[in-house]
Design goal:
By secondary structure, this protein is mostly beta strands. The protein folds into 2 domains: 186 residues, Immunoglobulin-like; 74 residues, Immunoglobulin-like, CATH 2.60.40. It is 1% helix and 50% strand. The protein contains 1 helix and 20 strands. A hairpin with a 2-residue loop joins strand 19 and strand 20.
């Protein structure tokens, strides 16, 4: 099912992630994502928000299998929401994404049968949440996915706000674990990030955890750029890569980064984890 989203006045696009306990297996009530001006799952489930580091709710926006930190109007992105906790195997969610710049159509959403879409016309927000058939976890986690396409007129940063509930499954509104998170995408260029058509670009963490091992299948010249997950560029350099593997010092603190290799053949984007 594909739903067009329209926002009037000071526009806010909302994809809301919210995980509920057993009594909300049909989906979360609107307005519980932890976004500005909203409550979160503790409004119904009680307890302490983000009580530990064992569980989490994670929002990922990707294109062609690669996580992105920027969006381009007119392109389609895969959005996934994952809730996990080592002592839970029943989960729920609600997610919303807010765009504060724009007063026209801001996007379209395509979602599968395990995700429900609701709308709050008073707040000009839409929400995606779980269904009764999609609360069971696998391996102490549950992931829901949908596609999002920003339409013409969208501009400025878009922030996805998500709230997730790891339920203890007893049917009571207590004892569940509630987590929130947010992810901001900045507007990008019109160039589509795609796989190379005539060469492979692979990145692995080096054996000592501090180097990126870059592998190409044909001699490659281009520009290699390292960015953090917010899209901030740490460095950019011209490279000439021979066939095989190059161990490259990343020169950055431990964390998650994005390596972008731009050549005449296209742009390749890979995630890299810098270890301590």
């Amino acid at each position: 099912m594909k739903t067009k989203i329209y926002v009037l006045g000071v526009a806010l696009l909302a994809f809301v992630l919210f995980v509920r306990a057993t009594q909300n297996t049909t989906g979360a009530p609107n307005g519980n994502t932890g976004a500005p001006g909203e409550a979160n799952c503790t409004a119904c489930h009680g307890g302490t928000l983000n009580p530990d580091t064992d569980g989490s709710v994670v929002v990922t926006v990707s294109q062609e299998g690669n996580a992105v930190a920027r969006y381009v109007v007119g392109q389609t992105y895969d959005v996934s929401v994952t809730v996990s906790h080592p002592q839970s195997n029943k989960f729920g969610f609600q997610v919303t994404a807010l765009n504060s710049a724009g007063n026209s159509e801001v996007g379209s959403v395509t979602h599968a049968g395990d995700v429900a879409l609701t709308e709050d016309t008073g707040k000009n927000r839409i929400y995606l949440t779980h269904k009764a058939s999609s609360t069971a976890g696998t391996g102490n986690a549950r992931t829901w996915s949908f596609q999002w396409k920003p339409e013409a007129g969208v501009s400025g940063p878009i922030t996805f706000y998500a709230a997730g509930n790891a339920s203890n499954g007893d049917g009571a509104p207590t004892g569940d674990l509630v987590y929130t998170t947010s992810l901001t995408l900045n507007p990008g260029t019109t160039q589509r990030r795609r796989e190379f058509s005539t060469e492979a670009f692979r990145v692995l963490t080096g054996v000592d955890g501090t180097k990126a091992e870059i592998t190409v299948e044909t001699p490659t010249a281009g520009t290699l750029t390292l960015s953090d997950v917010s899209g901030r560029t740490l460095w950019s350099r011209s490279v000439e890569l021979a066939v095989g593997t190059l161990a490259l010092s990343v020169e950055a603190p431990p964390g998650v980064y994005v390596l972008t290799l731009a050549t005449a053949h296209g742009v390749g984007v890979r995630k890299f984890v810098q270890r301590p």
